[in-house]
Amino acid sequence: MENFPKKELVNIVQAGMLSSKSAFALAVGRFVAKLKHQDLPLAQELSRFLTVEHAMRGVGDFSPTPVDADTRMELVETVHPVVLQKAPVLDEATQGTLDSVLNEWENLEVLLHEGLAPARMLLFCGQPGVGKTLAAHWMAHELRLPLLTLNLATVMSSYLGKTGNNVRAVFDHAISRPCVLLLDEFDAIAKRRDDDSDVGELKRLVNVLLQALDDWPANSMLIAATNHGELLDPAVWRRFDHVLHFELPSKDLIARYLDYLPVADQVRTTLAALLHGESFSTIDQLIRTARKAALIEKSDLAPILVRRALRLRMSKGGMTKPYEGEMVMMYLDGRSYREIATHFDKTHPTVSRVIKRYLGE
Ligand SMILES: Nc1ncnc2c1ncn2[C@@H]1O[C@H](COP(=O)(O)OP(=O)(O)OP(=O)(O)O)[C@@H](O)[C@H]1O
Ligand SMILES: [Mg+2]
User: Fold this and answer.
1) Residue 28: pLDDT above 80?
2) pLDDT range class, residue 149, cuts 50, 70, 90
3) Which of 39, 132, 186, 358 has the fewest CB atoms within 10 Å, measured from its CB?
């Protein structure tokens, strides 16, 4: 009995009495992993109960959706099942991390037997429109779990003291069964800290949040999304298993994103070059309006797309000289370098340089 895992046994009892089903399963896993060295048959007998079904079992349905005490507005939006039209297009590093997390969840049972939990808290940072919310939806879809979304910016609009209660109510609701909880606009709390005089209340709110993160069960996933990761409290950062940085898409990613468009490869490459520097949501919007215009005008999609992409690039000051846009436009209309050069009274190499810069040709 000398090496008997006493501490782990105490943790089992504690988890069983005080915590969620998943915390209990995790504690049993830790106990079993240690016990294997002392009493293999007993460890094997106990590990029979460490199944995904047991670990994922919640207490049935969700508790009723929490509402704000004053406005009676629902504090959290629930989607189940999550239906996606298309998976997000992500860079290799981001996709790799998300895949590895999903892989851990697929092998939940193996992990549980060793007393290990899958990564369950992710922080998504990045500019607007690069796929943070979409990726959170995709994770819920892949995990086949309900998605609960709490928009912190909305909840924060009430009194701070009340915000703490609201946040706590949402967490209590979310842990009532396995799910993916998305905390959108997560920086709302951090931002508020800079310009709020009510420092004490805010500190309490951050503490409520930290406590809630510490108590997060092993059978649910928590994803926080923010445009301003740098504003977050380091104590908050540390609690996440992975911090993912969503960047503006590269030319290659844009080209992949445009894969479904019924246009020639050459047009796709041109568009990717012109739209480089834009977010996916801006690109998505441009495509949608162009498709509508093509339908209404009964004309080809490709030229409309390219012209709009070019106009966008010009409007953003992305072109050094005003005539450069016109040059590219002429080139796309099928005019030769020589014709363009004559038209603008420029040299052939100048035209070639401009075209190369914008279209990468
Ligand atoms: N990586 C991506 N792959 C495919 N589509 C994307 C991607 N990122 C954004 N989109 C498109 O843009 C829309 C908005 O993206 P999303 O809401 O995920 O952005 P976000 O990063 O959460 O932005 P915000 O910071 O403003 O909340 C999506 O519905 C989708 O159509
Ligand atoms: Mg978002």
Assistant:
1) yes
2) very high
3) 39
Instruction: Answer yes or no: is 276 within a domain.
Output: yes
| Residue 314 pLDDT | 81
pLDDT band at residue 78 under the 50/70/90 scheme: very high
Residue 108 belongs to a domain with what CATH number? 3.40.50.300
How many angstroms from the chain centroid is the CA of residue 41? 43
Domain of residue 351, residue span? 251-359
Distance (Å, whole) CA 149 – CA 174: 10
94 Cα–ligand 1 center, Å: 14
Ligand nearest to the CA of 125: 1
pLDDT band at 146 (very low <50, low <70, confident <90, very high): very high
User: Are residues 257 and 214 part of one domain?
Assistant: no
Ligand 2 centroid to 279 CA: how many Å?
A: 12
Neighbours of ion ligand 2 (CB under 5 A): 132-133
Ligand 1 neighbourhood includes 259 CB (under 6 angstroms): no
Ligand 1 atom with least separation from CA of 227: 25
Distance CA 211, CA 203 (A): 12
Weakest-pLDDT range from 51-60, 63-72, 198-207, 290-299: 51-60
Domain count of the chain? 3
Q: Which ligand has its closest atom nearest to the C-alpha of 127?
A: 1
Euclidean distance between CA atoms 38 and 66, whole angstroms: 47
**Domain check: are 234 and 266 in the same one?**
no
Q: Whose CA is nearest to atom 29 of ligand 1?
A: 134
Q: Is the CB of 280 under 6 A from ligand 1?
A: yes
- Rounded distance, CA 9 to CA 153, Å? 42
**Is 166 part of a structural domain of the chain?**
yes
